[in-house]
Amino acid sequence: MYDKNNIFAKILRGEAPSTKIYEDDYALVFQNIAPRAKTHILVIPKGDYTDIYDFTANAPTELQAGFWAAVRKTVDSLGLRDNFRTVANTGAGAGQSVFHFHLHIMSDERFKTDF
Question: Looking at the Swiss-Prot or TrEMBL record, what is one Pfam family this protein matches (predicted)?
């Protein structure tokens, strides 16, 4: 069940601060407050989806397409095209701590040889 009081829901409603990088009708992109790489940002869809399974099963096609387009626009605008990772933790056992679907985009010089 989706918790409308999770931190990402609050960020989407403007009730909690974030360092916004990009926003459109489908997604919000902002800095991770606890980065694990030189560049570590989060992309969240504008909708109440707990994880990637919920999002891909229940979000309208237009929202899904818009979300992935926002990911691509963000990667391109930051010049990360050939040097980034995406991570979507799903479930507490996999490290998901905020149960609003989100995608981590990370980039660091060490990734060039770490893949």
Answer: HIT
